[in-house]
Amino acid sequence: MTLLPAYDITLAGYAGLAAIVAIGLTLLTGVSGQTSFGQASFVGIAAYAAALLPDGPSGLLAGLALTGAAAWLLGLITARLSGHFLALCSVAWGISFYALFGTLPLLHGFNGIGGIPPLRLGPLSLAAPAANVALIWLVVGLALLASRNLLTSRTGRAMRTLAGARAMAESMGIDTVRLARAVFVLAALLAAVSGFLFAHFQRFISPTPFSLTASIEYLFMVILGGAAHLGGAVLGAVLVTVLREELTDWVPRLTGATGNYEAMAFSLAVILFLQRAPRGLWPRLARRAARPKPRRAAPAQPARECPIADGVALEIEGLRKHFGGLAANQDVSFSIRTGEIVALIGPNGAGKSTLFDIVSGQLAPTAGTVRLFGRAVVRLPARRIAALGLARTFQHVKLLADESVRDNIALGAHLAGRAGMLRALLRLDRAEEARLLAAAEAAAARVGLDDMLDMKAGALPLGRQRIVEIARALCLAPRLLLLDEPAAGLRLQEKQQLAALLRQLRGEGMAVLLVEHDMGFVMDLADRVVVMDFGQKIAEGAPAVVQADPAVLEAYLGGVA
Ligand code: ADP
Ligand code: MG
To answer: If DSSP codes are grouped into helix, strand and coil, which group holds residue 65?
Structure first.
């Protein structure tokens, strides 16, 4: 039936099985920045379930359920961890599960379990290796397709914030802990599918393929292919599988010695690969491949109405924040009404950004109250505060540098959507996704970024990046907007455009609190000015009044005046 020798067919099967795990690991490690040295454990759980329940469907369901439950429990612990802690934790469970597979009497230790029947699809038997391999690669294709759907969705955008931009994501309304856990479970389920197929393909299992070494190989595959690229996962899986087999074959012949030299040769090959292509092989291959053009002219989203009602938007009372012995905020009180622009000024280190962080829920105050639209929000998580209608930008710009301006802005529209991971995987989110992207484009147009939507955010000059942050904030359709030094790095004309935009927003009833050092800009724009120095409010009032205040002159000019 086929021209490939049996050996190559088997190798193709193993490569496909590895690719399924690697695709999940790409979502987890490459895209979401959660390094796992434990994926082989999930493959193992499902493989043993398949071996113990050899009738196909029930083995698959049991494997998925067990793996999902194990991952969910582990996720309770690990979703809050990141970096080295998560990696270490995964090593720990990788070792534990391996020990468990080798010890549980039910699993027959290192003697393993044999006689697992080949899969059947209805009347169709997959006893022939070629048919089985075809099924495995069909699953690879489906996993690729679903994962690609996920990455081009609201959830996929949010996933990219998990690697190092979680504070920003929370202030866009994204529940990063829950999302991290969901990605973790998804990656584990893909590993489980691979484990199920593995058991029926090899028809014999023992603990060895589910060891820490195997987990490390999966990571190699992902990194070799190019950590964040789905195609790279498949490429890496094929390369590592073939390389391992070839080396096992050739190294003993070349060295004429017995021993574990192939492991060393394998490691050396991987190191050389990574030296030549540190960002993986896939980006090199795909460099010239055209990126899919996003659809234009999506239906516009009706803007959320801003209440013009003349109410209090924000009320801060007795706010205090201590960092150890340093009082960054000392009994600060003031309020902002809707349809008002208030400038918060003061020398560097006065405590302005700290106040922003407290109001937006990034920091808990030492004492004091913050009321947002009449609701006490101290100790509310940032994403809840965002949902109440507060949006902010950051003094130190927090963008996803490798993502497009469009996707960065669309992060702000997260709360305007509902589609979760499942709908994204099945591509049932397209209408909503078009709406979110349209909202992003509308926000971009509002701030004059419409011709830069496809550029990578990191490629823009810093001043423009600040404008991207403002567009992202506008996507939340906020009622209170906090801007931390929005005009820094802008040219005069850009500052004038920004001022015009803020006046327009004020006209729509939005409340704006901004930190700014350019006094010309502030005095022209603000209805009221609050001045801070050494954590304390030292003045408040109309721009002209504040400007003439001796305490303010003292703070700014150090008494020279
Ligand atoms: P501003 O934005 O007005 O320049 P900040 O609010 O950034 O001032 O900082 C106020 C003071 O608090 C500074 O002395 C700063 O060094 C200190 N500070 C800010 N954040 C922290 C932190 N996380 N830990 C310790 N000290 C901090
Ligand atoms: Mg600051």
So the answer is: helix
Query: Cα(156)–Cα(176) distance, rounded to whole angstroms?
Result: 12
- 3-class DSSP assignment, residue 124: strand
Beta bridge partners, 321, equal 329
Q: Which atom of ligand 1 is nearest to the CA of 321?
A: 12
Q: List the end-to-end C-alpha distance of the chain, in Å, as a whole number.
A: 93
Q: How many CB atoms lie within 10 A of CB 76?
A: 12
For the cut 80, the answer to whether the pLDDT of residue 559 exceeds it is no
353 in contact with ligand 1, CB cutoff 6 A: yes
Three-state DSSP at 536 gives: strand
- The Cα 198–Cα 47 span in angstroms is 7
326 CB near ligand 1 (under 6 Å): yes
Where residue 485 falls (left for φ over 0; alpha for ψ -120 to 50; beta otherwise) is left
Rounded average pLDDT over 160-168: 93
Domain chopping of the chain, boundaries: 6-238, 312-557
Q: Residue 317 is inside which H or E element, if any? A: strand 312-323
3 state DSSP class of 403: coil
Which 3-state string (H, E, C) describes 364-396? CCCEEEEEECCEECCCCCHHHHHHCCEEECCCC
Q: For position 288, what pLDDT does the model report?
A: 53
**CA geometry: angle 186, 30, 472, nearest 5 deg:** 90
If one residue of 319, 323, 355, 531 were mutated to test the ligand 1 pocket, choosing by the most ligand atoms within 8 A of its CB, it would be: 323
CA 179 – CA 428 distance, rounded (Å) = 19
Mean pLDDT value across residues 431-455: 95
Q: How far is the CA of 222 from the centre of ligand 1 (A)?
A: 39
**Mean pLDDT of the residues in the chain:** 89
Our CA dihedral for 494, 498, 504, 505, rounded to 10 degrees, sits at 150
Distances 300 to 172, 296, 360, 435, 481 between C-alpha atoms, Å: 21, 11, 28, 7, 22
Cα three-residue angle 354-357-361, rounded to 5 degrees: 145
pLDDT for the residue numbered 46: 96
pLDDT at 161 over 50: yes
Give the pLDDT of residue 301: 46
Architecture of domain 312-557 in this structure: 3-Layer(aba) Sandwich (3.40)
Q: Which residues contact 14 (CB under 8 A, 6 or more apart)?
A: 241
- Rounded to 5°, the CA angle 177-182-186 comes to 150
Summarised one tens digit per residue, pLDDT across range 317-360 is 999 999 998 999 999 999 999 999 999 999 999 999 999 999 99
351 lines ligand 1 (CB under 6 A): yes
Counting residues of the chain whose pLDDT is more than 90, the rounded percentage is 69
- DSSP characters over 463-500: HHHHHHHHHHHHHT--SEEEEESTTTT--HHHHHHHHH
